[in-house]
Amino acid sequence: MNDKIRDILDQTAKLPVKAATLSDDADLHEAGLTSFASVQLMLALEDAFDIEFPEQMLNRRTFASIKAIQSAIAELTQTAA
Amino acid sequence: MSVAASAPASTSPVSAQEAYLDELFDKGILLDTGVDGLYGRSDVFEDVIQAFDRLITRYGAQDRATPIHFPPGISRPLFEKSGYMKSFPQLAGTVHSFMGGEADHCTLLAELEAGQDWTGQQTATDIVLTPAACYPLYPTVAKRGPLPVDGRLYDLQSYCFRHEPSKDPARMQMFRMREYVRIGSPEQVQAFRETWLERGQAMMGSLGVPLKVDLANDPFFGRAGRMLANNQRDTGLKFELLIPVTSEEKPTACLSFNYHQDHFGSLWNIPTSNGDVAHTACVGFGMERVALALFKHHGTDTAQWPQAVRQVLWPK
Fold first, then answer.
1. How confident is the model at residue B289, as a pLDDT?
2. How many domains are there within chain B?
3. DSSP per residue, chain A
4. CA of A45, closest CA in chain B: separation in Å?
5. Could you read off the pLDDT of B196-226 as tens digits, one per residue?
6. A78 and chain B in contact, CB less than 8 A
7. Selected residue of A58, A61, A69 to mutate for chain B interface (largest B Cβ count, 10 A)
8. What domains can be seen in chain A, in order of their start residue?
9. Which residues of chain B neighbour A36 with C-beta distances below 8 Å?
């Protein structure tokens, strides 16, 4: 899943570095993820994983790292299953 | 009898906002135009606005800002590039005009005559109503090339338009916003915002109104907007100075203190003197809202306002 998240990061997040160079724990906001880019990232993740982030997940913490994104997606796909 | 005397259940009580609006109409402070949020202003109202405008200038003069005067419209291509439609599509107002021939004109007149919607005959012009005083500024600054070492500071005022019709007199569709806009390094613009957070409270405190400063967010549209609003709060990018006007629980934002980070600097390509992307911050003054707060707290007769407040607004 994390490779797929990295692909989407590269396509949408406009980071100055490749997602492949970031560890799962790396702080994406520190890596240059802006507020507007995080919205694009959120929408692309919803499309790719066929999920909808609930209101309480629409914040910086949910998209703070690859690991945080992965656990949010896992939580949502589990609930759906 | 008692049943007949009480109001029918279907009649909603007049809100505190509507009651204040009616009072302002009755006293002739504002003039009804038939459209919520679009009002004429009396001389008394304008006198307060002008006095507050001069007060802002007295507090800000030491910074030697460059004034620029834009009309209340911005170029549609620049508006499109600004990203406003991504964040606030529900508030924008575009200017449309008739650009057809004689046959189209006949159709338009027939539609008007029949009381039908005739506006479909209108086409978008190159002008969009200014949604915030600073929107025309950034592309203008970008054209001037890299910033000087000290960055830049601008003083703006414009009538602004936001489509949010309301009976709350503090939520007008056409209103004036004065802004100081700082453009420079992150340190420069954050220091500017800190200064105005203090100054704004001192200035408004001198007008004898209760106030508080609180974290805030812009009314971004939709789910994406929910996320932008949450991010804005989490990162402390927007503060508002709130004054109760018609509600203690929901006081009215009269000043706002905004740090845009590099959003406008990178969007419009504004470099600092060392080539970094410029950061921007602004302090915005809701001119009508401040006047409305003053009329609410001190009454509709400005001659009866507390002497100390009159002295601040109209120094002898």
1. 98
2. 2
3. -HHHHHHHHHHHS--SS-GGGS-TTS-TTTTT--HHHHHHHHHHHHHHHT----GGG-STGGGSSHHHHHHHHHHHHHHH-
4. 13
5. 999 999 999 999 999 999 999 998 998 889 9
6. no
7. A58
8. 2-80 (1.10.1200.10)
9. 83, 86, 228, 263
